[in-house]
Amino acid sequence: MSMDPRFGRRARAVTVMALALAATLAGGAWLCPVSEAAMSDPATFVEGDCNGAWQGPLEVAADLDARVAAYVPTTMDPSLAHLEAGEQAALAKLVEVARIMDGLFTRQATPCTGELAARVAELPAERQSAVRRYLAINRGPWDRRFDMEPWLGASAHPAGANYYPVDLTDAEKALIADHANGLDGLTTIVRRDAAGKLVAVPYSRYYGPELQKAAQLMREAAALTKNASLKAFLESRAVAFLDDDYYASDMLWMDLDSAVEITVGPYETYEDGLFGYKAAFEAFVTVTDPVESERLAKFKDELPWLEMQLPMDDRHKNPNRGSESPIRVVDEVYSAGDTRAGVQTIAFNLPNDERVREAKGSKKVLLRNVMKAKFEQILVPIAQVVVAEDQLPDLTAESFFLHTLWHEMSHGIGPGKIVVDGRDTEVRLELKDTYSTMEEAKADAMGEWDIFVLTRANKGYFPETIFRQQSATYLAGIFRSVRFGIGEAHGKANAIQFNYLVGKGAIVYEAATGRFRMDVPVFEKAIGELVGEICTIQAEGDYAASQAFIQRYAVLTPELEGALAKLTHIPVDIAPVFPRWEK
Ligand SMILES: [Zn+2]
């Protein structure tokens, strides 16, 4: 996902905090859910008083309908027919767990959601359905597409979401940032105690009833599945929900080898735009495709061969780099929480715990049916506006999937650990702030190059038509990605590819039609040259060259801007609908 645009924004109170215990006992306040142990437990805390929240006129953005239309509802319902009855029953339990995560994330994102819902119910009846839909997409009254500006009401987004009191003072922020105070935990909520002092409340306690229910459902699913790796993970993660220690179950998640899988818990920290300390609940419930898994295993075996073919100096090649990250291709059965808000994930890489990454690496999971949905709903309509008409029949969902798959595989080849001036170092350390942009551009370009080189070597994976299909689909994909902006690595990487390929004559603008065409043979050659240039800069750890390369190519040219201006009516993303699980 992209850089978090909320980071550094000033928090402003959207609720009136009740600092005095008396106020919380007055009856109208949202009492803390764990008040019994109040006097003795160090984690005693006072929840903010929501009576003051969302006061004033609840203005709705004038262009709400257009904002809603940017997310096209898309049914996700992969076949479960290949699963045995026990696995299907386990899957249904896991969707229930995911739905719990969904509710928890909404509470993490937005303070006083109950009061907000009550105010929405006061709106004119004809506005309510669009408002509720956009609330479900954004998980609050702030627009994730537009820098978290309010689209409903006038309250500024609190940078720390609902992880911290919304009226933190600068002194309190300093206390949190000082790691010695124990307020910076990944799985705690920061509140004040009755005396007004900041306290960290573990998720297992703050969300106690919900996480206990989730743990129970996980154990029930564990009893239903016949798969030993899934059973072990579910039982272990159920314990983690109750003691906030996710390490052991993160380790087991790496070993999952089951048709039914779930990725569930507190993971990413983007929602905490104040510090990036707190993890957001989310869930992906998925099923694997056995045919795809088999093909993937063969692709992985080609990585050392591909490394040796790389268009750069042989001394930079390392066939023993090893593919540190396992890759899984799955279909999404249900998604919830953090990942369900805003733009939908097509691939993720977890866990984030560095101890697990050191021991076992991390796992990349590609959501094939989400990619297919984006291909149909976004990529094809974009291509119909900007890609040469005779190349439109070459667009395929398979090519879009292959692009993403080989992008991820390509992160595992090319320069990683390098030697600069006799020093052992890493590309990441040498290229510093330019690293992500260069690595993403490399992975995109190399992904196409991989497919072409394998096909030229008659490996038998792809038909001859793949050259045309990858070319047209890749071209449309650049416009899709650049639409999200060139402020972060992925957007910059796409602008680099576009401008580089225009410079080489691979992408050709046709002034008469206002469309772009890919010259397929020129593309095949030029994409290899792009891979070679980036890999050489990486292998030499040449920061100055990397900066110059980005400065030259990562720009929005008038041609590119003109094309993007024609795409404003096309949805930005999908909003998944799961009819099997949600009415
Ligand atoms: Zn990448």
Account of the protein in words:
The protein is α+β, with helices and mostly antiparallel strands. Among the domains are: 21-76 and 109-203, no CATH class; 372-574, no CATH class. The chain is built from 22 helices and 15 strands. It has helices at residues 21-25, 64-69, 85-109, 113-120, 125-138, 170-177, 203-206, 208-224, 228-243, 247-254, 290-301, 303-309, 354-360, 368-386, 397-410, 427-431, 435-456, 466-482, 489-503, 520-539, 543-553, 558-565, and strands at residues 71-75, 142-143, 149-150, 188-192, 198-202, 260-266, 281-288, 327-337, 347-350, 363-367, 417-420, 423-426, 507-510, 515-518, 573-577. The strands form 6 sheets. The protein has a 5-stranded mixed beta sheet. A two-stranded parallel sheet has the order 1-15. The two termini are 29 Å apart. Residues 407, 411, 440, 443 line the site of zinc ion.
Helix content: 40-55%
Mass-distribution shape = globular
Total helical segments: 22
Strand order of the largest sheet: 6-7-8-10-9
Whole-Å distance between the termini?
29 Å
Classify the secondary structure makeup into a structural class: alpha+beta
Q: Mean of the pLDDT scores?
A: 89
**What is the count of β-strands?**
15
Radius of gyration (CA) equals: 25 Å
Structure at a glance:
By secondary structure, the chain is α+β, with helices and mostly antiparallel strands. It has 22 helices and 15 strands.
Helix/strand layout:
Layout: H1 21-25, H2 64-69, E1 71-75, H3 85-109, H4 113-120, H5 125-138, E2 142-143, E3 149-150, H6 170-177, E4 188-192, E5 198-202, H7 203-206, H8 208-224, H9 228-243, H10 247-254, E6 260-266, E7 281-288, H11 290-301, H12 303-309, E8 327-337, E9 347-350, H13 354-360, E10 363-367, H14 368-386, H15 397-410, E11 417-420, E12 423-426, H16 427-431, H17 435-456, H18 466-482, H19 489-503, E13 507-510, E14 515-518, H20 520-539, H21 543-553, H22 558-565, E15 573-577
Parallel strand pairs: 1-15, 8-10
Antiparallel strand pairs: 2-3, 4-5, 6-7, 7-8, 9-10, 11-12, 13-14
The structure holds zinc ion (ZN).
